[in-house]
Every structure is written in structure tokens, then in C-alpha cells.
Amino acid sequence: MTAGDPLSEDGLVAQLRALLAPQRFPVRREVELEGGAHDAGGAISFHDHFWPARSVLAVSAVRVAGGDVAAALRAAGVKQLIRAVLATARTADEALDVLAARTDATGLDIALVVLDVVAGTASGAFRGKAAVTLAGEGRLAAGDMLWLTAGGMDIPQEATAAPVEGMAALVRARIGHGASGAVCAVLFKARGRLAEETVFSIGNTHGDIQAAGEKARRFLEMHGACEADLTGIDVALDEVLTNAVNYGFEDGNAHEILLALSIARGSLTIEVQDDGRPFDPLGIPAPDLDADLESRQIGGLGMHFVRTLLDRVSYERRNGWNVLKLEKQLAGLAERAS
User: Fold this and answer.
1) 225 and 145 within one domain
2) What is the pLDDT of residues 206-264, one digit of tens each?
3) Where in the numbering of this chain does the Histidine kinase/HSP90-like ATPase domain appear (predicted)?
């Protein structure tokens, strides 16, 4: 292959490096981010940011040993694995523990920060030749700057204030100088507003049900729901989604199940929508709890628990979609408001 050939080793590595580059961080009222990476040879470095939940920002800096296609592919895999792990992991340390259990850590330097812009808290962790600088105990004040690096980049040992010259210049000054690695600076500007609703979708597989429960729980925890409410809603949502996955689809194809959660005056409403065959789970006969086990009919017990755990449950068929509405007054919020 000729020099400059996009299918040569160098050409493929260059293309993979370009794919690792993150999108520019958008302008937001709560937080500002700048990052960069540089490789002097023999390494693939990158930084990444994404929002695993509406109020949660995850920022990573990574360096993978090796400058060939295999190393670039490994770096791409690490990037996607971090994102997958943070769908359920609550802290940076938990996420990196899960990552270490599922990938070879040899030649891998990684720093991770998980920041909740509504709560004003952050957790940080690192593995290998990496570092994280957080404000005191992860509780943030407006103007605090957090740092993370992987590789040979130097960062401040303590959280710093926002620089007069701007963040971009401050980050650029730490990149290069013959070292390979990535560095990020995160400026916390103000706490975000607590969203009163959230909408997300999952696939029609049993593997997606747990992820839906985690997202619902995180939303409720942000609003201060108590553990008794959380446990009851976990059980009810698991039963409803299991019914939808088991009985709603007959074509064997992939479908979306939409979930919308909202809180108003301490009352939670969850709408679960799917485009499967018409199926009213409320039509399942209630079990005869007085009958002995041998004569009791199979089925209906799960929906009986759903009705017991929630205040109201209703169903309608709307424009070709099954729509199940679950409503519950949250005890923890009611106590706090009284």
C-alpha cells in the first residue's frame, strides 16, 4: 500500500482516532468542559463525555498502550464499555471496578468523573497512570473546577477556581510537551433544576427490564422518594414490563417500550406504552387467595401485587398502542411536605 493509503496501518489508526474524538461540549448553565489528547507514539489516548441520566454527566480520560490498529480498536471498545457500565453504576469507583472485571487492565490508564449537576456532587476514580482532582469530598460549589488525566499530563493537586484566561487555554497548556495522554477540566457553574418528568425507551427483551428499573429508581431518588416507595415501584414496574415482553409481541421483531415518569404534588405517574398486540393486563382474573395451592389457578398473582402496591392502575388502547398508567402517592414526599 502507498503512503497516505486510508487502508494502510497508519491510515486505519488515523481513522479510528478520529472516531474516538468526542463532540464539542454544548453550552450549558450548570457546567463547562474542556479536554484534549496527544500521543507522542506508542499509545492511543482520548477523552469522552456523555449523559447517562438527565442530570448526570460522565467524563473520562483514557490512554491505551500501543499505537497500532489493535490498540485503537481496544480504545474504541473501552469507550463503549464505559458508557454501557454507567447505565447502572452509581459512582465512578463502582464503574471502574465493573470495567476491571470485564477487561484486561494491562497497559490501560483511565480516569473517570461522574457528576450530578442537580445534587451538586461528584465522584472520581482512576486506574493505572491516571489522576482525578475533586473539590472537598465531592460536594461542589459554584466556580469549582475538577481535573482528570490519563497518561503523562500534569494536573493541579487541588480543585482550582475558574481561570480568567478561559478553560481552553488552561487545558491546551497541559497537553503535549512530549507526553502521551488525555486531560479534561470540568467547571461547575450552578446546580441544575430538578426535572419533574423523564421519558425513555427500552427494547422488548428481558435484559432491558432491569435497566428500566434502574432509570426509574434514579429519577425517584433525585426527588427524595423513600426506600419503601422505591421497592414497591421496582416490583410493580418489573411485573408490568415482564407482562409486556412475554405477551405483547408475536412477530419476533424488535420493538420499543416507552416509559414516561412524572411527579406532581408528591404523586407519581408512570405511563408504559408498547405497540404490541392489544393486551389489557387488568383483564387477568384476580387470584383466589383463599383457595389452597392445589386448586388455585395459575396467573394473576403478579397483577394482584401491582394493584396492591399502587393507588391506581388503568389501561387503554390508544392509536394502536397499549397504554398502562400507574399512579402512586409517594409517602416520603408527602411526609417531607407536611
Assistant:
1) no
2) 989 999 999 999 888 888 888 888 888 999 999 999 989 998 898 888 898 999 999 98
3) 209-327
Structural domain of residue 183, as residue ranges? 9-188
Q: Work out how many domains the chain is built from and give that number.
A: 2
In a domain, 102, yes or no: yes
| 2 within domain boundaries | no
The candidate with the shortest Cα–Cα distance to 113, out of 187, 175, 176, is 187
Non-local CB neighbours of 323 within 8 Å, separated by 6+ positions: 271, 272, 273, 315, 316, 317
CA angle 301, 276, 268 (to 5 degrees): 60
The three cell numbers locating residue 250: 408475536
Q: Is residue 283 part of a domain?
A: yes
Alpha-carbon distances of 47 from 145, 276, 288, rounded to whole Å: 17, 40, 58
pTM comes to 0.62
Q: Beta partners for 124?
A: 113
Write down which residue in 146, 165, 188 finishes a domain.
188
Write the DSSP string, 140-188: --TTEEEEEEEES----SS-EEPPTT-HHHHHHTTS-TT--EEEEEEEE
* Residue 183, all three cell numbers: 486531560
Taking the C-alpha atoms of 32, 201, 47 and 167 in order, what is their torsion angle to the nearest 10 degrees? Answer: -10
pLDDT digits (tens, 9 = 90+) for 38-73: 987 789 999 999 998 878 899 999 999 999 999 999
- Cβ atoms of residues 49 and 186 within 8 Å: no
Cell numbers placing 59: 467524563
Give phi and psi for 92, each to the nearest 5. -65, -40
Distance CA 202, CA 222 (A): 21
Cell of 236: 410493580
Grid cell digits, residue 335: 411526609
pLDDT digits (tens, 9 = 90+) for 128-169: 999 999 877 788 988 888 999 999 788 877 656 666 667 888
